[in-house]
Amino acid sequence: MQNNIKNIDIVLLDMMMPELNGLEFLNIVKKNEKLKHVPIIIQSGANHQEIEKALSYGALKCIRKPFNKNELLQCLDEL
Q: Other C-beta atoms within 10 Å of 13: how many?
């Protein structure tokens, strides 16, 4: 993956993952010089506090689960 890092345009991140949660992922990405510029949209069914925390870690937008295609496309257009 190291060779493809420059080709990442955006990340759609689910906050609930099995081995690494979304906040841990955000923390790793935003500390990495090669990745910190990549915009991240989180998708979450979590409470408002968790979403605010993710935004403070560097996520740019949040889409509440369940979301629809039009909501995602609008969010991508905004970024």
A: 19
pTM flag (> 0.85): no
Query: pLDDT tens across 28-54, in order?
Result: 999 988 888 899 998 887 778 888 888
* DSSP β-ladder status, 61-64 and 40-44: parallel
Please give the Cα distance from 10 to 46 (Å, whole number). Answer: 21
Is residue 39 reached through a cis peptide bond, with omega within 30 degrees of 0 on the bond before it? no
H/E segment holding residue 40: strand 40-44
DSSP secondary structure code for residue 68 in this structure: -
Q: How far are the Cα atoms of 13, 34, 45, 48, 52 from residue 2, in angstroms, in the given order?
A: 19, 9, 31, 34, 30
Task: Give the closest residue to 43 by CA, choosing from 17, 18, 20.
Answer: 17
